[in-house]
């Protein structure tokens, strides 16, 4: 990616989209972090298996 | 000087820019799901059909595109890696090279898919040479992975920049997933499939084709278990069966070791010639050497690696007195010479959409369904080709039959010869074009015959293909033939031996069940000695040297139990630890033993005050503890079931008190507690209600003056109570002579200490057993308990059990089972002396 391409797609305030990540419920967020990045593997695997069908972007 | 801002920060906020809001929770979820599924599907897990991860598939396909077959010259690995990266795999070069190297390692792959030239690493764990030095090409068997790929047998994906197409799966004409196995760590899930023998797996495939109802039993007639390229020995079939039946199971693999005698004095050494899968030889040798240095492994005098081009040979030389089998068992237990393979047969199914744990049957079914599809699609492709050719030939044959007219039409046409031919002979564009492309040579008679002949064969082929496509059984037959062909070409004998074992393999099975005498000294030296090491002497003998220890040390506890029983240790601080009997190092008769700190993690200043045996920690039994000051505490033994390595608190002791005796009881037994000054009390254990682990306990006996509790035992009907005094007298009387009282009283008189000395030990014994008596001088005597005759009264004197030197006193007496084989005493005592003592004792 050349500098001008980066400008056009990501940097240009006219074109870019910024995403503001907010924290509405710290306790629920903590639970999600624990599930997704915690030490226990089994609940994570279960969650991945149950949600596999909702996957949107695969980095092939 | 500070730089002056020449803009207003508000101006660069771009109030009109697009800002979307997103809560962290859904944001996290989508991000992790995308990542996890990408790793699961496109990196770490193999496809059930070809057993390949994307990187391996891309390597094989690139080598195929570059025509690097096994009959072509090798090419630099750098070229291959570069091609894979540039064409299909936009990732690091190291990941591609590492993956390719593995495909070429004869200790990683049961059947190598890439043939390497140069240093591709070794079973020692050496890294391969860099890719500028090594060369690679496809191996012979890889042709079968690729075969038929150009006949539209598989689906294709565009590559990353959509300039090329790559196969979604390779035709894999042999069952590669089972044959070469797969290991991978994704997110939240892993896969670990062991390699198998090609002949066995193909036979199982054929078995399923022949008998769709084949069960696990039928399959396991063919596939007996994994077959590792590093050979080794699989211990037991239960884990294999479980893995095949459920997709998960644990398989224990051992190194192959043999004993070899060498040298003039026929000493033994252990020769290791095969290792468990994925164990690195050099790391193993280092681990053995480290453990020998740390004294965790004994009996080894030398360790060498004599491996050469002819094969592996690790030499472990043993000390002269070492038992080779015991050393080998320890090597299995404490090093990777025995390792386990946790099978998780997880692969991608449903055209790489779903990760799934599969049973053996499911893997085979998925593979066979895919192979049927490959053959069907190949047949359709061949059919289409044949039909096209037949169609063309039809046109050519028409032209041949009417050649004069054809020539005439062509000559008379200006630029519309094709159309004219098509109109005249009702040909289509393709046929007319073929006629126009004919060479004049084709006009000779021979060529016409050839055309007719070819058309005829084509017709046969077309009929065959059509039949094949409509006949399921016939298609299966073709699949079977093709698999058989591969089996006969590449199949070989199994490498890994499978041994039947009874029950679970663990360290315990490797240790003989043996009754041993355990001794623990005041200073904390512990020793284990098989009961058979003590020989019987006559009563009154001086004893033989039982153990050497420092002058100020003395034996504190001694008992016998099996090497497989639990020993519990209680310390002065009231903590308890638990080990199995065999964990105590065995000593010789005169050795002083091992310091307990090497076995238990006890702290500075903490000493072991009691050592007991616990037959069953899971059961309903109780532990009864009695302290020097007469406190008793009874707790369910199962409370101590999960003692941590670091120990737990067993009793809350008063400051000046010591735990002196702990017994295991069944729940309704009578206890006898005896004091140094000759008192004893008998009460039912239920008098002391069971309490929690860290509680203090209740009063057992009221002590007068300087009296202290010296012991406690459990009373059993038909047995006798043996009291031994400090000056070596022994008295034995029936259990009934002690009447039941209530807990906490002063008790009854047990022994006349003014005449016969302070009470040293009390024990409930069997008449048939032997007694081992230990003196403060370190001497041990073993005599038959029956020699100490049972007397009527509680307070009788008894007989001389052991003759003592001046200033010497009895420290300890303990009953042991009688030995079958009574050898003559080999102690210092002569027969005459013994007889003389006997007389004095019975005056």
Descriptive overview:
The complex is a heterodimer of chains A (60) and B (843). Chain A has helices at 3-11, 26-37, 41-51; one strand at 17-22. Chain A is built from three helices and one strand; from the N terminus they run αβαα. With 843 residues, chain B is an alpha+beta fold. Chains A and B meet through β1, α2 and α3 of A and β1 and α1 of B.
SSE map:
The complex is a heterodimer of chains A (60) and B (843).
Chain A: H1 3-11, E1 17-22, H2 26-37, H3 41-51
Chain B: E1 18-23, H1 24-44, H2 54-65, E2 75-76, H3 77-87, H4 93-103, E3 114-117, E4 135-138, H5 142-146, E5 156-158, E6 165-167, H6 176-180, E7 182-185, E8 190-193, H7 198-210, H8 216-222, E9 233-235, H9 238-246, E10 248-254, E11 256-262, E12 267-274, H10 281-293, E13 300-305, E14 314-318, H11 324-334, E15 338-344, E16 346-349, E17 354-357, H12 360-401, H13 403-412, H14 417-425, H15 429-437, H16 445-470, H17 472-490, E18 497-499, E19 515-521, E20 525-530, E21 544-545, E22 555-562, E23 566-571, E24 575-580, E25 594-595, E26 608-614, E27 622-627, E28 631-636, E29 648-649, E30 659-665, E31 670-675, E32 679-684, E33 698-699, E34 709-715, E35 720-725, E36 729-734, E37 748-749, H18 753-756, E38 759-765, E39 770-775, E40 779-784, E41 790-791, E42 799-800, E43 810-816, H19 831-841
Helix pairs in contact in B: 2-3, 3-4, 7-8, 7-17, 12-15, 12-16, 12-17, 13-14, 14-15
Q: What distance separates the N and C termini of chain A?
A: 19 Å
Our estimate of the beta-strand percent of chain A is: 5-15%
Q: What is the mean predicted local confidence, pLDDT of chain B?
A: 85
Helix and strand sequence of chain A: HEHH
Q: Low-confidence segments of chain A, ≥5 residues, pLDDT <50?
A: none
Count of helices of chain A?
Answer: 3
Helix fraction of chain B by DSSP (H/I, runs of at least 4): 25-40%
Rg on CA atoms of chain B, Å: 42 Å
Report the portion of residues of chain B in β strands: 25-35%
Rg of chain A from C-alpha positions?
A: 17 Å
Tally the beta strands of chain B: 43
Shape of chain A: elongated
Derived structural class of chain A? mainly alpha
- Tell how many strands the DSSP assignment of chain A holds: 1
């Amino acid at each position: 990616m050349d500098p001008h391409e980066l400008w056009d797609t990501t940097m240009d305030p006219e074109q870019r989209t910024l995403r503001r990540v907010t924290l509405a419920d710290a306790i629920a967020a903590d639970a999600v972090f624990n599930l997704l990045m915690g030490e226990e593997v089994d609940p994570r695997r279960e969650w991945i298996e149950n949600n596999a069908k909702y996957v949107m972007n695969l980095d092939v | 000087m500070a730089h002056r801002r020449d803009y207003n920060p508000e101006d660069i906020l771009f109030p009109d820019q697009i800002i979307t809001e997103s809560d962290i929770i859904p944001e996290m979820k989508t991000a992790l799901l995308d990542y996890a599924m990408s790793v699961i599907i496109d990196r770490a897990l193999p496809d059930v059909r070809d057993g390949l991860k994307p990187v391996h598939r891309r390597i094989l396909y690139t080598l195929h595109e570059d025509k690097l077959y096994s009959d072509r010259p090798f090419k630099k690995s750098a070229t291959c890696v570069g091609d894979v990266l540039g064409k299909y795999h936009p990732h690091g070069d190291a990941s591609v090279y590492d993956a390719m190297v593995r495909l070429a390692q004869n200790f990683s792959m049961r059947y190598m898919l890439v043939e390497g030239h140069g240093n591709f690493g070794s079973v020692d764990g050496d890294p391969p040479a860099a890719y500028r030095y090594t060369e690679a090409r496809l191996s012979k068997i890889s042709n079968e992975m690729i075969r038929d790929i150009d006949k539209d047998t598989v689906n294709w994906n565009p590559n990353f920049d959509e300039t090329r197409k790559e196969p979604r799966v390779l035709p894999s004409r042999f069952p590669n997933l089972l044959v070469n196995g797969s290991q991978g760590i994704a997110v939240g899930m892993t896969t670990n499939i062991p390699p198998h023998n090609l002949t066995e797996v193909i036979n199982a495939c054929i078995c399923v084709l022949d008998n769709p109802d084949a069960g696990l039993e039928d399959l396991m007639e063919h596939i007996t278990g994994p077959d590792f390229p590093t050979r080794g020995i699989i211990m037991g079939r239960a884990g294999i069966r479980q893995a095949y039946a459920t997709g998960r199971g644990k398989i224990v693999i051992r190194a192959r070791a043999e004993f070899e005698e060498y040298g003039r004095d026929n000493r033994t050494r252990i020769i290791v010639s095969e290792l468990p899968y994925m164990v690195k030889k050099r790391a193993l040798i280092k681990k053995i050497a480290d453990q020998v240095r740390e004294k965790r492994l004994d009996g080894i005098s030398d360790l060498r690696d004599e491996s050469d081009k002819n094969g592996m040979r690790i030499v472990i030389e043993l000390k002269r007195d070492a038992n080779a089998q015991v050393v080998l068992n320890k090597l299995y237990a404490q090093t990777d010479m025995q390792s386990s393979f946790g099978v998780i047969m997880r692969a991608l199914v449903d055209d790489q959409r779903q990760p799934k744990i599969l049973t053996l049957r499911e893997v085979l079914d998925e593979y066979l369904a895919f192979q049927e599809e490959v053959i069907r699609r190949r047949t359709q492709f061949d059919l289409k080709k044949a039909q096209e050719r037949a169609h063309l030939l039809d046109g050519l044959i028409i032209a041949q039959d009417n050649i004069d007219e054809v020539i005439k039409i062509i000559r008379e046409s200006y630029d519309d010869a094709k159309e004219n031919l098509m109109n005249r002979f009702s040909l289509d564009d393709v046929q007319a074009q073929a006629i126009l492309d004919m060479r004049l040579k084709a006009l000779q008679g021979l060529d016409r015959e050839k055309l007719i002949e070819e058309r005829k064969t084509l017709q046969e082929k077309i009929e065959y293909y059509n039949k094949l496509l409509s006949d399921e059984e016939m298609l299966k037959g073709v699949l079977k033939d093709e698999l058989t062909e591969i089996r006969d070409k590449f199949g070989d004998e199994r490498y890994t031996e499978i041994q039947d074992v009874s029950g679970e393999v663990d360290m315990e099975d490797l240790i003989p069940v043996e009754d041993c005498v355990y001794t623990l000294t005041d200073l904390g030296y512990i020793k284990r000695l098989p009961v058979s090491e003590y020989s019987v002497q006559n009563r009154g003998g001086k004893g033989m040297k039982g153990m050497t220890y420092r002058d100020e040390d003395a034996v504190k506890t001694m008992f016998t139990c099996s090497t497989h029983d639990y020993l519990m240790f209680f310390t002065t601080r009231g903590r308890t630890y638990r080990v199995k009997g065999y964990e105590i190092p065995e000593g010789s008769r005169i050795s002083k033993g091992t310091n307990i700190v090497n076995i238990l993690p006890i702290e500075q200043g903490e000493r072991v005050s009691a050592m007991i045996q616990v037959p069953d920690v899971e059961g309903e039994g109780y532990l009864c503890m009695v302290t020097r000051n007469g406190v008793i505490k009874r707790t369910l033994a199962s409370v101590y079931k999960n003692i941590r390595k670091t120990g737990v608190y067993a009793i809350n002791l008063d400051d000046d008190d010591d735990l002196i005796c702990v017994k295991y009881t069944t729940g309704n037994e009578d206890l006898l507690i005896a004091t140094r000054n000759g008192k004893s009390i008998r009460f039912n254990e239920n008098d002391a209600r069971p309490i929690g682990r860290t509680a203090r306990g209740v009063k057992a006996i009221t002590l007068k003056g300087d009296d202290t509790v010296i012991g406690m035992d459990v009373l059993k009907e038909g047995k006798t109570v043996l009291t031994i005094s400090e000056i070596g007298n022994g008295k034995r009387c029936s259990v009934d002579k002690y009447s039941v009282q209530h807990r906490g009283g002063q008790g009854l008189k047990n022994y006349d200490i003014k005449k016969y000395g302070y009470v040293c030990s009390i024990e409930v014994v069997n008449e048939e057993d032997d007694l081992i008596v230990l003196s403060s001088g370190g001497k041990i005597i073993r005599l038959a308990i029956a020699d100490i005759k049972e007397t009527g009264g509680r307070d009788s004197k008894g007989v001389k059990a052991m003759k003592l030197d001046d200033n010497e006193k009895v420290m300890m007496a303990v009953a042991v089972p009688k030995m079958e084989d009574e050898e003559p005493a080999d102690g210092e005592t002569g027969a005459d002396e013994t007889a003389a003592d006997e007389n004095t004792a019975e005056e």
